[in-house]
Design goal:
Shape of chain B: rod-shaped
Distance between the termini of chain A: 23 Å
Low-confidence stretches of chain B: none
Mean pLDDT of chain A: 92
Low-confidence stretches of chain A: none
Number of helices of chain B: 1
Order of helices and strands of chain A: HHHHHHHEEHHHHHHEEHHHHHH
Radius of gyration of chain B: 12 Å
Strand content of chain A: under 5%
Strand content of chain B: under 5%
Largest interface: A-B, 27 and 19 residues
Structural class of chain A: mainly alpha
Mean pLDDT of chain B: 88
Oligomer: heterodimer
Number of strands of chain A: 4
Largest sheet of chain A: 2 strands, antiparallel
């Protein structure tokens, strides 16, 4: 018995919630009725930002606005992190971050990655946690949601993709803030701390004095999960008893990880008026997700080889697990957090059985199993375009997608964006695995050590943020390299798809006919699944063999 | 040493965001 009843309830309940949320997000993000309350909400943005938040933008203007906004946020957060010792809300007297660590952290949170080469309770003041990092957790997720809304508008034939600032305003104020408020309230109710007082000092039963870090944890955790950010308030992330105190908080936060990515698929269907197509995309994502969760639960139900020579009886892998969450909670979370670009952890990924460890990596390599807020669907769009093109070539017709022709320019951009991902992961791994930058940071020899390096670059390029740990990654080369990879890995797969839809929307609409390749059928679902697995996964097969698969064969 | 580190950080920032600007302006050449 794999104990799959709780995962099934969590996944089922999240799917049920995602449908009404998708309808709501369609209203919040793309309401075109000038008398609706979203328009009144927009007028607040115009009052603050002026005409910059009101005029429509073509894809290039939209992307430039996105980049300008994110550069500004990056500089702001970098400045806060390097001057926090002089700033307020620092009751425990935290010092400034070293420059490369501040660069890595600002890049990490700007790119929605939340890769943490620091420990929050040790290094960050409350102002840095709330005013810099939590702020970015909202606006980076809002950037993803804005980008996917622009993509949907383009795919519905509009050359005016909307206004980036208005979309971020709507995503933050109408989607993320209300959801985060509800979740944070529930988390407080179930025992997650929420205070601005400094660390608590307690006397233990043995009479020793203990300092217990705490803070505004509930607020931080809610947007950390909903925004697929993943950066923990505490270093141990959601394994920490104050960040994820019990079974109920674990269930709620696990649902929060996949809720918005699921709802985004429905929002895409409503905006483009292609709900059947959205059902096919959702089906492909759910199939991959279910296979990954089932496989992880099965593989973790076998005991770890680390206990093989010890007088310990264990009929499953209990190393690195928090049993207060249930036996399969670690496996479900490991898949959820890496299928989406969340990256929070409730178990030690370094302790997963070798083949289970492959699954989180594969989730990050594909990066389309619901994916990060907004960007998961954008990544899937690149595979959809590729699948449509391949199918079109096979039947000898000019490929069309949603009434627009897919030609050389669109394919060139799609393939370049798809290839950027393995380039960052494999290129980075190759450099660090063959130099002292990587080898000196390793805590494990052989294939497991290689897996640690692969995982770190996969996590950075997929904007995930989780770590295999065991890697001493707070060094200047790691901080700079992963910082650059996170920024490029974040924005190239947003810019290229928006360029594609901008190009497609400018073309004359092609009426659908009997010969049009339909994208709302199970056949297309199978073609898409094949494309994702062949184009996305096959590129990583050699590195998978050298890392986790070699380790599996060695310890077996 | 510290000024060399600062130069590295500034160079990485300029490269990353500069390159993204290049991708927006000339998407087919990235």
């Amino acid at each position: 018995m794999l104990g799959l009843s709780i995962p099934l309830i969590i996944i089922g309940a999240t799917i049920a919630l995602s449908w009404p949320l998708g309808r709501y997000m369609r209203w919040a993000m793309d309401s075109t009725d000038p008398s609706s309350s979203t328009s009144r909400f927009d007028s607040l943005a115009v009052a603050v930002l002026g005409t910059a938040a009101s005029k429509g933008q073509a894809w290039k203007e939209y992307c430039i606005s996105m980049l300008v906004f994110n550069v500004f946020m990056f500089i702001l957060v970098f400045s806060i992190l390097t001057t926090q010792q002089w700033l307020p809300l620092n009751p425990d007297g935290k010092e400034a971050l070293e420059a490369s660590l501040a660069f890595n952290t600002a890049a990490s949170f700007t790119s929605n990655t939340n890769l943490q080469h620091y420990s929050g309770e040790v290094s960050m003041s409350y102002l840095s946690q709330l005013g810099a990092l939590m702020w970015l957790q909202f606006v980076s997720a809002a950037t993803g949601l804005a980008a996917v809304t622009a993509l949907c508008r383009g795919l519905s034939g509009r050359t005016d993709l909307g206004n980036f600032y208005r979309d971020v305003w709507r995503a933050t104020g109408l989607v993320l803030l209300p959801l985060a408020f509800v979740l944070a309230s529930l988390l407080v109710l179930f025992g997650t701390p929420m205070t601005l007082d400094g660390a608590a000092v307690a006397t233990t039963l043995e009479g020793a004095t203990q300092t217990i870090a705490r803070g505004p944890v509930a607020a931080y955790v809610s947007i950390k999960q909903l925004g697929t950010n993943g950066g923990g308030f505490f270093g141990p992330n959601s394994t920490h008893p104050l960040e994820n105190p019990n079974f109920l908080t674990n269930v709620l936060t696990n649902m929060a990880i996949i809720l918005i990515p699921m709802a985004t698929v429905w929002m895409f269907g409503w905006i483009t008026n292609r709900i059947k197509h959205a059902v096919v995309l959702f089906g492909v994502m759910l199939f991959l997700y279910a296979v990954f969760v089932g496989s992880a639960a099965m593989l973790e139900s076998q005991s770890t080889q680390a206990f093989a020579q010890l007088p310990v009886e264990a009929d499953m892998n209990l190393e690195g697990k928090e049993l207060r969450f249930g036996t399969t909670a670690g496996a479900l979370w490991a898949v959820s957090t890496t299928s989406t670009s969340n990256g929070s952890v409730n178990a030690m990924h370094d302790s997963l059985n070798p083949l289970t460890g492959l699954l989180p990596m594969a989730g990050m390599w594909l990066n389309v199993i619901f994916g990060g807020v907004g960007v998961g669907l954008i990544n899937m769009f690149l595979y959809v375009i590729t699948a449509v093109f391949l199918a079109g070539m096979m039947v000898g017709r000019t490929p069309e997608y949603l009434g627009r022709k897919v030609e050389a320019r669109e394919m060139k951009l799609a393939i370049l964006a798809l290839l950027a991902h393995p380039l960052f992961i494999l290129g980075g791994t190759a450099i660090f695995a063959s130099s002292s930058w990587g080898l000196d940071a390793l805590n494990n020899p052989g294939s497991h050590g290689l897996s640690e390096i692969i995982y770190e670059f996969s996590s950075a390029a997929a904007n995930n943020g989780s770590g295999f740990e065991g890697l001493g990654d707070n060094t200047v080369p790691w901080n700079i390299a992963t910082g650059v990879v996170m920024l490029l890995g974040r924005f190239i797969p947003i810019i290229a798809p928006l360029a594609i839809v901008g190009s497609m929307a400018a073309k004359r609409a092609t009426p659908e006919s009997a010969g049009t390749f339909r994208v709302d059928t199970p056949t297309f679902g199978v073609v898409l699944l094949g494309t994702v697995l062949i184009v996305g996964a096959l590129l990583f097969l050699p590195i998978a063999v050298l890392g986790p698969i070699a380790e599996f064969l060695t310890v077996s | 040493m510290e000024s060399l580190l600062n130069i590295c950080v500034i160079a990485a920032t300029v490269f990353a965001f500069g390159y993204l600007g290049f991708v927006i302006l000339w998407p087919e050449r990235f």
